[in-house]
Batch of 4 targets.
Target 1
Amino acid sequence: MNEGQFRDTAHLFALKGILAPPFLPQIKGQRAIADYMEKTAGGISMTVFSQTSQRFRNSRLQVDVQGRVKTRCFETDTAWTFLLNPDGNIALLQIKLHVSLKKLNQLYPYLYQVACG
């Protein structure tokens, strides 16, 4: 994703995969996920600090990743939780920003622009 290959990244999701970004409704399906990424993720870089994985129900794998996201507007610690289906596709990706209330207030104009276009 750091290279801006959003369509290729979206194809890592299951056909009906779900992206759960912070502060927004879930985005469902590869095409909608690719559209969302193209609209909001330009210029984002991500750094991974650590990851853990564990088997989940129905032969699924949960992967928890800790890292940092940097955009042109802000930089913050982030957690990603991936739920992979038995085929290895992303069934669900939940993204959580680790920010203080003060920083969240500073981010509000940026987050509003992402949410409302």
Note: The chain has one domain: 6-116.
Target 2
Amino acid sequence: MSIKKRLQDLEEKVIRGMEEAFQKMLKLKKEKETKLVVSKEGKVVEISHRKANSEKKKIEKMKMAEKEPKKESVKSTTKQKKAASN
């Protein structure tokens, strides 16, 4: 197995482990009805477990959007074709 493949496998395992740890922490915070302490915009703040879960979902959506290829509008492609033909 190449070093690159081994590093990719290790990265996937670390990410999975972090996800599981986060879910366990949220479950514990929910059971104990306590807040999470996080850094937001450089400040230390307390947030509810519900807020943390919704923030996590927003981040996941943003990551998915970054991975998707960007679609060009019909207008921009038409303009590009006209510019290329001139």
Note: The chain has one domain: 3-64.
Target 3
Amino acid sequence: MSDMIRMSIDVPANLHRFVKMKAASRHQTIRAYVIGQIARDAKKSASVRKPDRRRKPNRLTHETIEKSLRGKELVYSKNLDEFFRTLDI
């Protein structure tokens, strides 16, 4: 790891003890344990999100995309709250 940046966070005492215990059980420093956990989580997230370019949208999705491209059935709102109210969400 080349370009390192210092990151400081406050954690509850019980969480600190937990992380310290997990790191010690793996014979790692807290730093190494936390960086490893973050790296594993980032790798897992990246592999889950790969889109399948071969898949085609179903008929309803395709029709909805076509309507939106033609400017049909669009919802305009000033902000997110108004948008949710308009859609009755």
Note: The chain has two domains: 13-48, 58-89.
Target 4
Amino acid sequence: MSARELGGARSRRRPVRGWADDRGAVAAEFAVSLPAIVAVIVITVGALGACARHVRLQDAVADAARMAARGESAQRVHDVIAAIDGATGVVERGPDDMVCVHATLDAGLGIELSATGCAIDGGG
């Protein structure tokens, strides 16, 4: 008998694949992990968006506090805060000649952003 007939080293037969076959395992693992990857990306982008809105709100509150301290009209002060979609603000005159503006904003998913800015009252 030759080596070919006995299934020796020169045999060209393919190995029999059974349940232990791992072809397609990478695709299956990718399909399973893809929703988690997408969820992490969506949450990260949402958090960055909320941070950007909070910075805009803080800037608007600081501007509104300075305007209120200079004696600008209450309507103009509220317009600065209202320029941020969905923001509402309150102007308070505190002790020691301080004017503070507090604003809140609904960031979605039950998260509320808030910012406070104060300035020394210099208006008349």
Note: The CA atoms of residues 27 and 33 lie 10 Å apart.
